[in-house]
Write a structure and sequence with these properties.
The structure is a single chain. By secondary structure, this protein is α/β, with parallel strands linked by helices. Helices cover 28% and strands 23% of the residues. It has eleven helices and 21 strands. A nine-stranded mixed sheet has the order 4-3-5-6-7-8-9-14-13. The chain has a four-stranded antiparallel sheet with strand order 10-11-12-15. Strands 20-19-18-21 form a four-stranded mixed sheet. Strand 8 and strand 9 form a beta hairpin. The termini are far apart. The protein binds 5'-O-[hydroxy(phenylacetyl)phosphoryl]adenosine (DLL). Residues 91, 134, 139-141, 208-211, 230-235, 239-240, 297, 299, 320, 323 line the site of 5'-O-[hydroxy(phenylacetyl)phosphoryl]adenosine.
């Protein structure tokens, strides 16, 4: 079924770039003023930096990173006391304290509007139904998509993650047109649908919150019988809905009237030209409780400011190709999990499920890939995968090709695909 992109706020989504940039500058100036005025830590950090008179002046401002948020835990970077907040979210973080983010009632409206644009662009129509399998709670996925669906007049089924059998039953019984969840969970669902194939009512999936590739998208689309679009966001900036593909799947449209993107060199922090891959920095333009300036997302992508064929004028970003801190350095060679995924999914007979295990043997780092057969009956020798990896990654790896269903699956949330044992194996002396 062909899914056609719609609009939620066409006058903004197709605004001429010149007008958009004028609006961005005005909002950037207000954001800088708010931070100087209301957040003592920022007053200090911005001392001596002139107010921006053009968007290019943004480059004069310091980059903010995750440790800055942790150092000011929990509310030190907010512009208002907690009693003025409508809601708090937090990202789990693997160690220590979580990263805490706050929203005023107006911030929640802005967020809902951004997500509504994502859903309408993905081709979900008012009156249709969204099965929301993102986790509800401190994670921004569940409640973020929930409010966006409501703002767009889409009926939302707040299922949250987990209990996959029950999810499939509800999809069968309620007949939703759209689903949102992580791509790894979409694979789990597709797998359980199994041989019966894509016989559900679903036509579109709004998938994100973790890295994935175009190749995995193809597998998900075939398995679920949907058009799958990529939605991106992070709690520090607002949550899901910073950017999203339309049903045309032609880059993730950034909600540029609310978020100003820059792509910078991961080493030097210098701005890179459009089209080059670097770290995405985001500046919020309208947030009130927790405005954020030049936030280092760590996510690697490129952007284009060419208008898209559907008429949207806002900048578009590529798929996230990796994280600056996700990169594995294996015997001096940089390896991103997304490269492995890309190569694996291209091998006939191999499923999109995989796990990377990094060990240290003596002073040498080794990469082991747990790949899996896709159950089609095509046999794949591990040596074949080793060769494919040697030509795509440029290093030798060890590979197991396991039986279908062996590699860990997502049970609803984000899936950790890399197991890095280097802290506990090997020695630093050869
Ligand atoms: O993952 C927000 C979200 C919820 C996005 C639902 C999309 C859908 P955090 O938990 O703060 O927020 O994690 C943010 O997840 O910096 C990326 O590294 C990664 N990420 C999010 N979306 C994508 C995506 C939510 N589409 C971090 N592709 C980000 C690749 C993504 N990585």
């Amino acid at each position: 079924m062909t899914v056609t992109p719609g609009f939620h706020r066409p006058e903004i989504e197709t605004m001429p770039r010149e007008a958009l940039e004028a609006l961005q500058l005005e909002r950037l100036q207000a954001t800088v003023a708010l931070l100087r005025d209301k957040v003592p830590v920022m007053t200090e950090r911005l001392e001596g930096i002139a107010d921006p008179t053009s968007l290019a002046d943004l480059a004069n401002f310091p980059i903010l990173r995750k440790p800055d948020l942790r150092d000011n835990y929990p509310f030190g970077l907010f512009t208002c006391p907690p009693d003025e907040l409508a809601r708090i979210h937090a990202s789990s973080g693997t160690t220590g304290k979580p990263t805490v983010v706050g929203y005023t009632a107006d911030d929640l409206d802005v967020w809902a509007e951004c997500v509504a644009r994502c859903l309408r662009g993905a081709g979900v129509e008012p009156g249709e139904m969204l099965h929301n399998a993102y986790g509800y709670g401190l994670f921004t996925g569940g409640l973020g998509l929930h409010a966006g669906a409501e703002a767009a007049g889409i009926t939302v089924v707040p299922v949250s993650g987990g209990n996959t059998e029950r999810q499939l039953m509800l999809i069968d019984d309620f007949a939703p047109q759209a689903i949102c969840c992580t791509p790894s969970y979409a694979l789990t669902l597709a797998e359980l649908l199994g041989e019966a194939g894509p016989t559900t009512s679903l036509k579109v999936g709004i998938l994100g919150a973790e890295p994935w590739t175009n190749e995995t998208r193809t597998a998900i689309e075939a398995g679920l019988g949907i058009t799958a679009v990529n939605i991106y966001g992070l709690s520090e900036v607002i949550g899901p809905g910073v950017s999203c593909e339309t049903a045309d799947r032609d880059g993730l449209v950034i909600m540029e009237d609310h978020f100003l993107p820059e792509v910078v060199d991961p080493e030097t922090g210098e701005q890179l030209p459009d089209g080059e891959v670097g770290v995405l920095l985001l500046t919020s333009l309208t947030k009130q409780a927790f405005p954020i300036l030049r936030y280092w997302t760590g996510d690697l992508c490129s952007i284009t400011r060419e208008p898209s064929p559907c008429g949207r004028t806002h900048a578009r970003m590529s798929f996230v190709v990796g994280r600056a801190d996700d990169m594995l350095v294996i015997r001096g060679v940089n390896v991103y999990p997304s490269q492995v995924e890309h190569t694996l999914v291209g091998i006939e007979g191999i499923s999109p499920h995989f796990q990377l295990v990094v060990n240290r043997e003596g002073a040498l780092d080794t990469l082991h890939i747990r790949a899996e057969l896709d159950g089609s009956g095509t046999e794949v020798a591990p040596g074949h995968v080793v060769e494919a990896m040697r030509s795509s990654l440029g290093i030798g790896v060890s590979v197991d090709v396991e039986a279908p269903g062996s590699v860990p699956r997502s049970e609803g949330g984000k899936l950790a695909r890399t197991l890095d044992n280097r802290a506990t194996t090997g020695s630093d002396q050869a």
